[in-house]
Amino acid sequence: MTLQGWAVLETEEDLRMLFERMKAEFQRLEVDDIVHPLVSAEFVTPFNILGTAESHIYSRGKRVAEPYAVQSTLMRCGNEWRIATANYCVPLSTRGLPAALMPPAFPSETPLPSQGGDDASHRS
Question: What number of other Cβ atoms are within 10 A of residue 120's Cβ?
Answer without folding.
Answer: 19
